[in-house]
Amino acid sequence: MAERFLTMKQVMGQVALSKTELYRKIKAGVFPRPVPLGTQKVAFVESEVAAWMEDRLRARADGEGAERRSQQGREAVEARQDRGNG
Question: Where is this region: Disordered (predicted)?
C-alpha cells in the first residue's frame, strides 16, 4: 500500500494536540518529523503518525501517564500514613 500524507490540520485532529505542542514534540524527537512539500507546506506520513499513536496506547497500557502518577500519589500517601501509625 502506498504511503499517504496528512496535513498539519489532519494530524492535529487525529492526535488532539495543538500545532505548537506538535512542534515541541518534533523538536524533542518524540513525534515524527514532517516532510517538506514546498516552501511553506509540510505533511506527515500517515503510517508514522499511526505508529506514534500506537506507541502512546502501549505506554498507557504499561501505566504511563496520569493513571500511573495517581497510583504513585496514592502509594506515597499510604506510606506516610504507615509511618505515622508505626
Answer: 61-86
